[in-house]
Amino acid sequence: MKKVTKKVVSVKTKAAVKKAPAPKAKTGSDAISLKKQYVKTSGKCKVTFRLPKEAALDAQLVNIVGDFNNWSITETPMQKLKNGDYKIVLELNSEREYKFRYLIDATKWENDWSADKYIPNGFGGEDSVVVV
């Protein structure tokens, strides 16, 4: 007696095949707020700091304040982008940690939402930390 086997064939129709949606551009709180680019020849790291517009609604001025500028509240203003985010690129020495915060309109302090870590600051809050 012969053994009969059935072969099952799967058929896909065009309607069953879906393409993955194209990735959306990252903006606002979806954007990476800390981007690091190491410069091998100098031993430094270019760090892009980005404060999303949701953290600085209606802000006129945002300064980044931290260890890298001796906590000066005026020395390092950030650039306001068309989408409302604030951005600055700083070249920092590698193999260090830097505490920092954002100062919005000289009255409101904000931490980086995706800092590498947070450290208590002695004022009842925390400072953001970037590790480079």
Shape descriptor: globular
Task: Say what the CATH topology is.
Answer: Immunoglobulin-like
Estimated helix fraction:
under 10%
Give the number of DSSP strands. Answer: 9
Amino-to-carboxy terminus distance: 75 Å
Name the beta content range: 35-45%
Radius of gyration over C-alpha positions, nearest whole angstrom? 24 Å
CATH homology superfamily: Immunoglobulins
Helix and strand run: EEEEEEEEE
Number of helices: 0
Q: If you average the pLDDT, what whole number results? A: 83
CATH class: Mainly Beta
**Which residues form runs of ≥5 with pLDDT under 50?**
5-29
- In quaternary terms, these chains amount to single chain
Largest sheet: 5 strands, antiparallel
As for the number of domains, it is 1
Alpha-beta classification: mainly beta
CATH 2nd-level architecture: Sandwich
